Amino acid sequence: MSNHSSTHHLIKQIATIGVFSGFGFLLFKYREGFYIIRDLSVFQFVSFSLLVIFGITLSGSKLSCIANYFNIYLKKSEWFALSSMTAVLNNIFFKSGSLATSTYLKKKYNFPYASFVGSFVGDQLIILFMASLVGSITTASLIYSGNVQLLFIFITFAIIVVFLFILPGGKLTLPKKEGGIWEQLRIGTDSFNTLLQNKNLLYTLCAHNIFLITAAGLRLFTACSILHQEIPLIHCFLFVAAITVVRIIPIAHSDIGVREITVGLLSETIGSGLKAGVLITSIDRIFELLLTGLCVSVFRKSLVTPKN
Hints:
Largest sheet: none
Helix content: over 70%
Structural class: mainly alpha
Strand content: under 5%
Order of helices and strands: HHHHHHHHHHH
């Protein structure tokens, strides 16, 4: 078990170094593309800012809905601050923002880590399903238009959609065993089952996630406008679908560079170019970090935990 963990950690370290190196090289190579930001219009900045705030609000509202089901009632400023903090940290280290949110809920509301993990996994599967559905539709449309090179990507999205569509019909069960670890697993499994079996909560999260995907697609489209890249909106939604998949899979220790390279390669595949994909995703990350960081600084006083 120890050898397996060491090997897994080593692979992720190598992947992280590889991604950082590749991303750094691409940023240096395409650095002149960022100069266009100097011509950023007020309308573009306001549009992007509103989309980021809309995304933060949706994520926070989603967290509030899940917490409410477990009889935890967050103030609006509280869930908005938690959502902003999660976005900032997740943009830097893999799921570190989600971990920080879990720790906060545990300290202030005694919400079990296992329950949070179970709910978190369920929500991630929902957004993965919605993103894969969007990815399937967009790739099918592009293949119909002549981009046959996307066939493998379409098949991948379609397989994910079919698998996750079947999943809510079942129920995860664990064998009855004694021990602290098994107890935590049972708590997490119960939360996971609750989220997927409760139709009202499931549909609410589906609605939140489809709006999140829409906002993210419009954000990338706005980034295209900022950089004067004539990329169709349908491509932006395909990029968001791909980003969602790679952000759920822990390829490296950090998210930085992963989505930029992914979108760059996908953009190259569909004819928009590697440079365009890397630049628009980089701009999206930079503005998102700045705006969510600002939101955290404004609402940080809402995140007060009791002293031990």
